[in-house]
Amino acid sequence: MKRTLAFLLSAASALAAGPNLTIYNQNFAVVRESIPLDLKQGSNTIQFTNATVHLEPDSVMLRDPSGKIALSILEQNFRAEPISEGLLLNLFEGKELEFEITALAGEKRTIRGKVIRSGYVPHHRAMNRYGGAYAYNQTTYSQGGSTQPIVEVAGKLLFSLPGRPIFPALAADAILKPALDWRIHAERAAKLDAELSYVSGGMSWKADYNMVAGETGDKLDVVGWITMDNQSGKDFENARIKLVAGDVNKIQPGSPEYQEAKLGAMRASMDEAAPRVTERSFDEYHLYTLPLATTLHDRESKQVEFARAANIQSARIYVYDGAKIDRRHFGWDAATIRNQPEYGTQSNSKIWVMREFANTAENGLGIALPRGRVRFYRRDQGGALEFTGENNIGHTPRNEKLRVYTGDAFDIAGERKRVNFQVDHNKSWLDESFEIRLRNRKKEPVEVRVVEHLYRWTNWRLSAQSLPHRKTDSQTAEFLVKLGPDQEQVLTYTVHYTW
Questions:
Q1: Which tens digit of pLDDT belongs to each residue from 170-191?
Q2: 118 CB neighbour count, 10 Å cutoff
Q3: What is the value of pTM for the model shown?
Q4: CA 319, CA 336: separation in Å to the nearest integer?
Q5: What is the enclosing helix (H) or strand (E) of 231?
Q6: CA Rg value for the chain
Q7: What is the pLDDT of residue 280?
Q8: Residue 95 needs a FRET pair 20 to 30 A away by CA distance; which of 72, 108, 198, 371 works?
Q9: What whole-number distance in Å separates Cα of residue 194 and Cα of residue 224?
């Protein structure tokens, strides 16, 4: 019996207030959290040490959510490089330090050396796989070249550290976490929980779908997962999370539209959280709200099951697109193609296997599906799951049809060859004939959709055909060929071009 889509994450009692995240699937997020402020009238010096390392400083917004106190940031400094061994070495370039070394007998002693070059690469120059800086707790050393450390000991140069460096006590202004330093003007003295919002890189999410068919038939059970990835350099405890699906234009810093784009992203994060998992249109995108507060640690990927449906009606489709075309060699200029008689005559023998289903409420779905990877499984005898293929889908609105390529058929083969070619350039016409053979070695009947691309010109008609065709677009014809068990069929057609 068909069941409608069921979201697993139900509403729960409110947890302690935590940060709010709106994560985009383009490696950035809007962070919104509450910070306590005890302000005197006039100018105040405040330090906030719980930001992400990838915070965009000019996206910071600080306000009183009640609107009772007007806050004005007179000055802001963002320091994203906390104290580390490498940074301290860098600060001591040109100065002497003590180094602790261990003798062969295990005895420890110290020597003095002058740091000529630290070999430290600042985090803003060490780029990670997201195109941003490594998180603050990663020190980067090079094994050679211009960033190799150089230490002078007893008038000689060492191209490595002679031992473990020993540093003097930290200065009062040293930071152990990324820090925002503010000078805030308050119109009057007040204690309040201010709302801090900013855009940060280093966060992303993606969707994955597992679709399981039974031992026989083509009905599917669907489980949808969301994977959130936090590489921001900050833990988020009991965070309320929203996810935006869609291709949001993220303007690079320095362009005139940058501020307005960030403000628009922040507005997206300021809606009230829904009591249950919801999906709704938001501007030109779709917004998904997870109702349960969750902790997202730095350098952590977290999976959340967000959708489940059963008995989805689907169809297994076989498609033969027999023309093996190297578009890089010839291009798609029509005049050039007409003068290349051998263009498109090489044959592809593979029959594609496609899985097709409707994303409708009547079919147990009917929600906007974020782009992601779809994995297909089938239950074998005894109920074991066997993997049968996967592919990616794009953002798919509700009430649209999905057709996903999952692999090539093993027991169905195709063969395509040209049997006639005539061209009269003076009278501007061309005739081309093809023979397509399909063989079904299965024990059950199949239907194969034969797709033919009429690529030589836009004006064409089929002057002869052994089976009827359907024109799917201006230069594509599709034939439906039915094959019985262990049967071969031959499809022939002639296309007449004029220009």
A1: 766 655 678 899 999 998 999 9
A2: 22
A3: 0.68
A4: 28
A5: none
A6: 32
A7: 59
A8: 108
A9: 37
Strand, helix or coil at 417?
strand
Nearest by Cα to 367 from 278, 304, 243? 278
pLDDT of residue 122: 61
- Give kind and range of the element (H or E) at residue 221: strand 220-230
Q: What is the Cα 72 distance to its own chain's centre?
A: 37
| Percentage of the chain modeled with pLDDT above 90 | 56
Distances (CA, A) of 138 to 119, 122, 170, 304: 14, 10, 19, 28
Two tokens, residue 411: 């027991």
CATH architecture assignment, domain 312-498:
Sandwich (2.60)
Other C-beta atoms closer than 10 Å to the C-beta of 472 total 12
Quick one: which of 185, 178, 231, 184 has its CA closest to 57?
178
Asked if 42 and 187 touch (Cβ cutoff 8 Å), the reply is: no
Least Cα distance to 71 among 105, 99, 35, 95 occurs for 35
* DSSP string for residues in 195-216: EEEEEEESEEEEEEEEEEE-SS
Burial class (CB in 10 A: 0-12, 13-18, 19+), 398: middle
